[in-house]
Amino acid sequence: MGIEVVVEGLTKSFGGQNIWQDVTLTLPAGEVSVMLGPSGTGKTVFLKSLVGLLRPEHGRVLVDGVDMVGGRERDVYEVRKLFGLMFQDGALFGSMSLFDNVAFPLREHTRRKESEIRRIVMERMDMVGLVGSEGKLPGEISGGMRKRAGLARALVLDPQIVLCDEPDSGLDPVRTAYLSQLLIDLNAQIDATMLIVTHNLDIAATVPDNMGMLFLRRLVAFGPREVLLTSEEPVVAQFLGGRREGPIGMSEEKDAAALAREQDRASAPRPDGPRLLAPQLEPSPGLPPRQGALRRRERVLGLLDTLPGAAREAVLRGRTAPVRAPGPDPSPAPGHPPAADGVRP
Ligand SMILES: Nc1ncnc2c1ncn2[C@@H]1O[C@H](COP(=O)(O)OP(=O)(O)OP(=O)(O)O)[C@@H](O)[C@H]1O
């Protein structure tokens, strides 16, 4: 089972530039979380801080009893092996075959025999649907295949925590829909704690158990998906609605005059009406139920009294109207509609 990641009061700056401050959240064990935020708000910096590749100046990141910020280098190095990292471009070595790319962490960090390495690599290639392409070079395959190869490589060391940085960047909507399903399927199979950084609203609406958002140097929100998806917080609602109206401007924050002009127009009816929750994806047929989703159900029911009214209703309703924002159907499994809450009965 994945392990939880506890972030407490994290603050990171580069020189005089503060990226974010006092970020506190917990990634629950084995659950899938998404971090949203406009470009440049420090999402990648956050991922790198979790794994100890960047060291924030304040706060702690506790993983398996080790503080990835202030812990001893040796301990941080050991705990880093619990992580699987998938970077935006797949970060593959261009001169190596997909097989060698995926095998790389095993050859680098373990003393396994080649026969064993082959078995593990082919298993992971199978999980991401790349069997048959293992001899190809990264330059010979599509962007979507490179992403999946990057994901296979992130999985070879049996990670308990998987961090994915914009796994959808550069993918068309159909490939993104397949990727969403793949992320849920992987979670069902390996029960790892997952954090996905994305701008993609379909992924945000259908994949995670929990969502967070960074904006203007702070964590605006983090919690169960129902909380953010029903949030009236202007920044969250604007971002999830994909609208120009709201506090987020082209270069991060709108000036006061622009906001005031918008508020004058605010009496006009909103084009998108009330927001309803899209159903969360469930694992493809034949896969086990997600243990993280089962644990989450208990956890969120325990939190019910602390949730805002709309989120509480959404949790209790469980099955909300299957209304989605315009876009492709994210479920690639024909004839197999997803459960509303991602949890099998
Ligand atoms: N090593 C570094 N040294 C100095 N500044 C950095 C470094 N890494 C990131 N930054 C700065 O931190 C800020 C946040 O960058 P980051 O890549 O985390 O944003 P992001 O939210 O992931 O953006 P996007 O959604 O566009 O990928 C940027 O202003 C960037 O220039």
From TrEMBL:
Basic and acidic residues biased stretches? 244-267
Q: Which InterPro entries match?
A: AAA+_ATPase, ABC_transporter-like_ATP-bd, ABC_transporter-like_CS, P-loop_NTPase
Q: Which GO terms describe its molecular function?
A: ATP binding
Pfam families from the UniProt entry = ABC_tran
Composition-biased stretches (Pro residues): 325-337
For the region Disordered, give the residue spans.
244-295, 312-345
- Residue ranges annotated for the ABC transporter domain, each copy included: 5-241
Which keywords fit this entry according to its UniProt record?
ATP-binding, Nucleotide-binding, Transport
The answer to keyword Kinase applying to this record is no
What this protein is called in its record is ATP-binding cassette domain-containing protein
What species does this protein belong to?
A: Streptomyces sanyensis
